[in-house]
Amino acid sequence: MTETTPVRPVSAPEVAVRVLTVEGEAVLALARSLPADFAATVDLILACKGRLIVSGIGKSGHIGRKMAATFASTGTPSFFVHPAEASHGDLGMITPDDICLVISNSGETAELSDVIAHCARFNIPIIGVSRRAESTLMKAARMRLLLPDLQEACSIGMAPTTSTTLTLAMGDALAVALMEMRGFRKEHFGTYHPGGRLGAQLLKVAQLMHQGEAVPCVAATDPMPEVIVEMTARGFGIAGVLDASGRLLGVITDGDLRRNLSRLMAVSAGEVCTRNPVTIAPDSLALEALGVMNARKISALFAVDGECRPVGILHIHDCLRAGVV
């Protein structure tokens, strides 16, 4: 038997361009022809008292896991249930208060039959995601997210490529629509992403600042020898100077001490301080505070309330230790 040498493409980049073009055009086709049930699906999920259960097997299962993770991290309680495990006890994880989002390219995946039957038995709404409108899954679904029936991006037209890209894109579209309908904001996102660099970028000044007795503050009438003692004790290289009402009148830094060295022992804090200092609100992002400190070439910022009373102090080293960069 004679072996034939497979025909190689001209170049790997050519293949990449072809695949990306096919998949990109497929996503645009989905955007131009959004499933009719999309808006109703978003409303159904928003009204759900339980969780959004995602299920699928094979490549659809891998996409489903990612979709469930995205939903959960953006304000929609969600988790993935493997259909095979569901048939061996995990169906108990799906309650009548839940909604099932079931993914099957063909809509005829046998392993999903027990999940579909369980939902029918307990009147649990199914959101079907498939390319086959007349499939078993789509007939059982209350909401049908029909994907365009387009060619796969691989050369033999069989490996899940275009179909999985479309499913993933549909999941992202749902997650973002739900985020915006819920009014989901950066601070909410930070609640679900406390770790790593992303979590650090979402930290608030209030989470990092020093408070209470650690905040170096003196009265405007305090003599400078007392101010120096306070600055030395707190170790920030700065002191806030307060007026009679407790509002931040100014700040004294190590630089102010050097500039006033000749008269330092004979004047008060109010005579030395730099007036109207830059401050930050405690609910501002620490990343914003770091930007202010870098721009002003300063190493510390007072956090003040709405009446300009100091509630904390943030040092640049606090930001760096927390990974805010």
Any overview of this molecule?
- The chain has 325 residues and is α/β, with parallel strands linked by helices.
- It has 2 domains: 13-184, Glucose-6-phosphate isomerase like protein, domain 1 (Rossmann fold, 3-Layer(aba) Sandwich); 205-321, CBS-domain.
- The chain is 43% helix and 15% strand.
- The protein contains 15 helices and 12 strands.
- The chain has a 5-stranded parallel beta sheet, with helices on both faces.
- Helix 3 (59-73) links the parallel strand 1 and strand 2.
- Helix 1 packs across helix 7 (162-182) and helix 3 packs parallel to helix 7 (162-182).
- It starts with 11 loop residues before the first helix and ends with a helix.
- The mean pLDDT is 90.
Strand order of the largest sheet: 2-1-3-4-5
Q: Which architecture of the largest domain would the CATH scheme give at its second level?
A: 3-Layer(aba) Sandwich
Estimate the strand proportion: 15-25%
Distance between the termini: 64 Å
